[in-house]
Task: structure prediction
Amino acid sequence: MEEDVKTFKDLQREVIDRGLCGKCGGCYSFCSAGALHALELGDTGLPRYRDEEKCLKCGICYLICPQINVLNDDLKARFQWKPPIGRYQRITSSRSRDPTVMTVCTDGGVVTALLLYLLDHNLIDGALVSAKKGPFAREATLAFTRDEIISAAGSQYSESAHLEELGGRYSTYAPILPEVKSLEKQYLRHIAVVGTPCQINTIKKMQCLGILPAHLIEYTIGLFCIESFSFDDLARAWLEERHGIDFHEIRKLNIKDDFLVTLTNGTTIHLPLEEVDKLARPACLSCTDFSNEYADISAGGLGSIDGYTTTVIRTDKGATLFRNALRHGYLEEVAYTNADERTIEKTKMLAKIVSFSTRKRLRAEKRLRELSGATEVECEEE
Amino acid sequence: MLVIGGGIAGIQAALDLGDMGVQVHLVEQEPSIGGRMAQLDKTFPTNDCSICILAPKMAECFRHPHITLHTYSEVTAVSGNMGDFSVKVLKKARFVKEEACVACGDCSAKCPVRVPDKFDLGMRQRGAIYMYFLQALPMVMTIDRENCLYLTRDVCRICEKVCTRDAIDFEQKDTEIDLRVGAIIVATGFDPFDPVGLSEYGYRRYRNVVTALEYERLICASGPSGGHLLRPSDRKPAQTLAFIQCVGSRDVRHNPYCSTVCCMHATKEAMLAREHDSAAHSYVFYMDLRASGKGFQRYVTRSQEEYGTTYINGRVAKITEDLEGNPVVWYEEPLGPATVKMKVDLAVLATSLVPRRGTEALAKILSVEVDKYGFFKSDPLTPYESSRAGIFVCGCCREPTDIPESIIQASGAAAKAAEIVAGGSC
Result:
């Protein structure tokens, strides 16, 4: 009977070895929060056995992996998922009303404003965010105070540039979930997590199973995500040769309708999204979720005018949170001149999210088809 | 003889009957006997540690030669008549071998599931394999089938792999047993009224508004905060406390009756706050202060004089919250014209006592009547007799009562039930 349970070995074969691992850290954070200590994160951020003897073959790391589909139907049912962009109650364009937040945020500062509302009203004890540690480094961190939350802002979502130095590579992705494992030890009860779709997906799968450490996570705020980038030497060479961009001159990266590279001299270079796919982390190319379909609230710059954040209110919890943040003056919605404009703008916003979602989904399906032939044979041999 | 409910009333009734030499079956739906009293920190009017005076009775009941315990079990059918009832009892599988488990806790330490703990009223999380509470009897682990990942999704089995006693048994099945008994004593107790519907008090909306039972767990050494009176929102010591009386009781919208125990437990809880922290100050907001039991009035006086508790005669209109998460209590001065606002660290709602969930279903199984509030019916001159001959009621399932009164009733019901089997075989 036990042999039927798929374990980390299967995860290695089906996900990690195929280059599909997005390094969300879910498997590792579960394994260590449960004090099983069979896994660790390697130098590149990929999970691996720390001590295979300690693996109890529980099969949970396998189930919660965002690349594994076993729990997808459960997840869809539980969160009333609907095509094409998941469940949502309302889509709006909003921004923070706090001048401090607005100076550090590139777009509307909605994520930061929501976190501040939650913290100020004692609805959370802390927030798990990725904070800037330097111009090109980001690190997952638990923020307990307003200052910590505000200092983590600025490139939260609007710049997808979560640049983190990992060995010789630069990656725009901060693995947040390993930080979650430390929560169990602290007497914290409510946490908000800001994360990419793969991170939120893992958390929601954990919550589907009712396992630690996801039980501490009360709110999930999802970032729109086309892909995160890893800047290895090859990619840097490509940027420099093809577009004449000196890597060291980059001040910030952002995705709106296309890929925006802002240089230290203030100029912004637009690159078509198709081209930058080659910079994306391979795992991102097989991810189907653009608009963070399982979060309580998703947010991103796409579809809003400058200085505002497109905000997708999905769950009832998310709706209550957004309503209260508006009521308490943490947020304001964009003011439309009339009802027609409102309808037109909202339709445009939805159309953009749908189009980006569809693009990402198709890209992933294609990628998975390309990969699937070889693996199926492999599985049959097992 | 059958006793349904293993709280203090059921335990006392079983002990009395057992001591008379009557064979007793005690059926308890939870994994352990102990009931509500096990959740309390102290008892009034003596401030005795609740579990310290309950545990010896639990132990006596557990090892009594004439008492057979059926924990984690439910009565599903009753037929026959006074003197000869046939009872079906569903014994739910624990998936743990009672004889092998030593409650070392290795399994629950490794169980990856986290669900709100019922005994600590959701203020703590537990695994899917757990002990109902620290002093539980029988002292064994139980697997909760709704949340166990093996029983729901065919993965995990970590508890089985870490158990050194080989005590996990996923093959266990629910079993149904048949009992023949001469009489039945019902002692199924109460639930606290859920104050969420009374939106003016902000329960669940404000983290520092708790119910009295939650407060009992908070100040209890074995509770979620280890016995430190720390308020939920920021775990800072709660030094100014408001006790709001008659929450759901004496309220025509909910329960028009008086729950009888709340004035006294608020008095106790106010005293305990001061015992935990000499800087603590408590305000009790009451409609009428009912201290009609033995030694109760002296207890209130002691609370005022020795513990500095302030009693304010007034109904709290609403509770709001300031930006620091402090509950703000709005009330009217008894003689003053103005509305007063008082900022406190923690507000404690004395929620009324309502019949245990499932009381109505059990009443149907037993074919006995309940009154309009859902408590088992009884008459003033035959207080322990239900509407059906041979079935007796005692404790909070017949009316809200405090612990001393529940014990009196249990002994009374046991004596009445013993009449039926006196000289008989059951």
